[in-house]
Structure of DNA-binding GntR family transcriptional regulator:
Amino acid sequence: MQSYINSYIIITMENKINKRQYAYKVIRTRIVDGTYAPGQRIIIDQIAKEVGSSHIPVREAIHQLESDQLIEYKPNVGAIVRGIDNELYMETLHVLALLEGHATSLSAPHITPVGIEKLEGINKEMKEMLDNYELDRLGELNREFHFFIYSFCPNKFLIKNIQETWGRLDIVRQAGFTFFPNRTPQSIEEHATLIKLFKEHADGLKIEEYAREHKLTTLEAFKKRS
């Protein structure tokens, strides 16, 4: 009897967690892709019906999104989508610089010669897209460059945190003010230097510092934008 009760409790908890995760994914995706605009109220009843759950998993998902700084509560209004202002964007970039620096350092010893060739190919394509001024594709390639590096990182929890942080920046990218044309040629050169460090099997601390500064330079470009 006790075994049956324990099994029931475990199954119930798993179902609750799954519904919370599903609600979280639904709401987060809509925030990131712009379906839910900054300032838009999140209707708990509506989400609960869509995901087939009670209010509790949805509320827990909203609390998690609040921790992610994607949602905020306003008196007499409820949960609304949070817009990312300049200060929050800069703070997020700074955190990302620290996370990506360490992830790049951890990835470096595991990058294969074939991996090096792929990174060189991505960077070459970035140069071609810059010459053609294909800005949307440039952003995609930049993400592909860095996340391919992280595919060699043994710390998967670290990568998950980086992915979530990039997700927050995606909201800003919907507003179209994260591309800095004057910064991009330098960024491509920095990618080439990073590849060179990988080839030379440079010291991990040196790679970490360089990767961190690469991201912080983007932060400085944002501060100086006109």
Q: What stands out?
A: The domain at 86-223 is CATH 1.20.120.530 (Four Helix Bundle (Hemerythrin (Met), subunit A)). The first helix runs from residue 2 to 32. Confidence is low (pLDDT under 50) at residues 1-14.
